[in-house]
Amino acid sequence: MDSRLTASIREEMWGQGDWSIVFPPESSIFKEFSALPPGSARIEIRDNSGKLLATRALDVPLAKIEEWSPVGKTNWGYLLTQDYSTGMGSYSGPGTTLIQISGAAIHDASALDAKTHQEEPIRLAKTLKQDWKIMTGGNGTEILTVSCHPKSAEDDSFVVEYMRYAFEGTRWLKYSRQETGFWESDHPFPPRSAFP
Hints:
Blueprint: H1 7-13, H2 19-22, H3 28-35, E1 42-46, E2 52-57, E3 63-68, E4 77-83, E5 94-102, E6 105-108, E7 110-113, E8 119-121, E9 123-125, E10 130-137, E11 140-152, E12 155-168, E13 171-180
Parallel strand pairs: 7-13
Antiparallel strand pairs: 1-2, 3-4, 4-5, 5-6, 5-9, 7-8, 10-11, 11-12, 12-13
């Protein structure tokens, strides 16, 4: 990340929005970033000598990366979270992608959709109308996601979509269902029984 985004500045901005929203116009950081806004973060893969092997530009200045593996696996991959918060709106907030590193390249983990039989990247978000959590137990590793959105552009009613990503041996499978209803993040996260 931009070296000017110190730990304390990142903590102040995370989940709140752009620097221009978070910091008062009279502050020195606002003035500095007004003259030269922070650049977008990036992932770099380097070998033991420091040689750059691969890089990926990210969408926003703030990002976090955390090593993570499904139960029973080691050194599987990472949770890459980018902060898309804007300080307002029902659908802005941190977005997480599961990534893997192999052959000095960065790959987004994908899941096979049980309905469409199409592979798609696993994208997770925490916003006013979306949330997710990882569950481990007798069913292995599952990622549960809930989201609420309008049924259609012509219809004012809302639907709640329940998605479950299940790690089954060597790959992820995605199961989903939706129902008419309304959910926001100030409500409890739905019980496991709500997910397909």
